[in-house]
Amino acid sequence: MALTHAQKHAPTPASAPRPARSATTASSFTRRPGRWVDGWDPEDAAQWHHAGGAQTARTNLACSVYAEFLGFGVFALWAIVVPQLKKYGYTGSAALSESQQFWLLSVPTLVGASLRVPYTFAVPRFGGRNWTIISSLLLLLPTIGLALAVGQHASFPVLLTVAALAGFGGGNFASSMTNISFFYRSSQKGKALGLNAAGGNLGTAAVQFTIPLLVTFGATAGTAGSIPNLPLAGWIFVPLVLVSAGLAWRFMDNLSVVSGTGDRGGFEMASRARHTWVLAVLYIGTFGSFIGFAGAFPKIMSDAFPQHGLKLAFLGALVGSLTRPLGGVIADRVGGARITVISFVAMALGAGGAVIALQGKNFGLFMATFLLLFVFTGIGNGSIYRMIPAVFEATGNTCDDAARQRTRRIAAGSIGIVGAVGAFGGFLIPQGFALSKASTVGSAHPTGTIVPALVVIIGVYVLLGALTWAVYARRGAALAKAGI
Question: CB neighbours of 313 closer than 8 A, spacing ≥ 6?
C-alpha cells in the first residue's frame, strides 16, 4: 500500500480537476449509458453523504480490490510454478538451466514495471470501469497460456513468452490505484488507497500459499514421487478472471471528470527533477527487493532446503505486504528519511543473516532472517512514498496558487516514475542470483550458490542507506530541517 501515504500528503493533483459547483449541480451526479457518471465531486458533502457518493465509491473500491488481487496473483504465478517444473517432467534433455529458471522468475517483473506508466494513462483514456474490464480479461492470456504451455511441456522460449505475459498483472496496480484515487475525497483517500493496495499485494502471498495445495488435485504418481497438476495453476484463474470482468461490467463506473485528464506535463516536469531519480533509486532498494525476493523466495527455499518444500514460501510476501502501511504510519510521526535509513540497515542485517543461514544449512535462521528482510522492505516502501510529496513540498515554489499547483503536479508525476523505476529492482535481483549461481558451480555447490549475490546486495543496502542519510537526514543537509 505504498501510495497510501503519498496520496494522503499530496492534495488531489491537477490531473483530476473538479468541476465548478453551481446551484443546479451541487450535491448530485447523473448516470448515462456505459455507466458513465457526470458531475462527480466527492468533496461535496451532500453528494457524498446523501446522494449515494460514498456507496458508489465503496462499490468501485470493492471491485477494484478483487481485480488487483487477481492481477498480483497472476504476476506472482511463475514464482511458485518454476520450483515445481522439475517434478512435472522438465528433466533430462528438457531440463531448464538455473539461468533459464531465473529468467522465468524475473521477466514478469520486467514487463510489469514497463507497463506501469502506460497503465496509469489508460484510466483517463478509456475510463476506470472500462479499463478494469479490459485489464482483467488480459489476464486470460498468461493464465491460459501457462496451462497450455506447461501441459504440453513447451520449450523454454515458449515458456518465457508466456511468463512475460504475466507482466499484465503487474501493470494492474498502477491503473487500479489511479482509478480509485479519483473516487474518494481527500480525507478518505489514504485509507481507500491503502485497502486497494493491500488487496493487491496479498495476491502474491495467496498464490504462493494456495497453488502448491491446488496442484495436488489431479496429481499423478511418478517414479520420483507425485507429479503435480501444474496446468491447474493456470486454469484455476480463468473463472476468477471472468468474475472480475463481470463485476467491473456490472457494478463499476467511469467518471467523465477523469476522462482526458492524464497529466503528461506533470510526468515531464517530474522527470527533470533531481529528487525524482534519487527517490527512484531508493525505491529500487525497497520495492524492488520486495518484488524480487518474493519472486525468488520459493525457489531459493526449495533449492537450499528441499525437505521443507514450499509450504512456508508465502510468508515472505505476506509479511512484506502487511508491513507496508506501518512504514508510512511511523514515517508520519518521525520522518520518512529516518525510517528509510533504519529499513536499509535492517535489510542489510537480514541479508547478512541469510548468508550465515545458507552457509550453515540452518533453516530456522534462514526463515527468521529472510522474514526480517521482508518486514523492512514493506516498512521502507511506506516510508519512501511518504517522502515523495514531502520532498517536493519542501523544495518547490509555494508562493502562490499557481506555484503550489505546479509543485503538486510534479509530486504526482514523481509518484508514477518512482513506482515504475523501483519495480525494475524486482528484475535485477533474480538475475543477480542467476549470475551468482552460475559463477559458483563446483564440487561444494553443484548448482552454485546465491551467497555472493547476497553479499553484493548487502553492500547496495549500505550505500542506499548512506545516500538517504546524506541527502535527506544528515545534519546540515538542505532538507534535514524539513523533517523529510
Answer: 80, 208, 212, 297, 298, 301, 302
Q: How many CA atoms, within 13 angstroms, populate the side-chain half-sphere of residue 460?
A: 19
Provide the angle, in degrees to the nearest 10, between the axes of the packed helices 363-395 and 274-304.
Answer: 170
> How many other CB atoms sit within 10 Å of the CB of residue 367?
18
**Residue in 185, 177, 170, 178 with CA at minimum distance from that of residue 76:** 170
Write the CB contacts of 404 (distance below 8 Å, at least 6 apart in sequence): 396, 398
Closest CA to 240 of 2, 70, 455: 70
Within 8 A by CB and 6+ apart from 212, the residues are 80, 84, 228, 309, 310, 311, 313
pLDDT averaged per 10 residues, the chain (length 484): 43 43 57 89 86 91 94 94 93 90 95 90 90 97 97 96 96 86 77 78 91 89 80 97 97 84 73 92 94 93 89 91 84 88 97 96 96 94 84 76 73 80 92 94 83 97 96 85 79
d(CA 313, CA 242): 28
Residue 384 near residue 286, CB atoms below 8 Å: yes
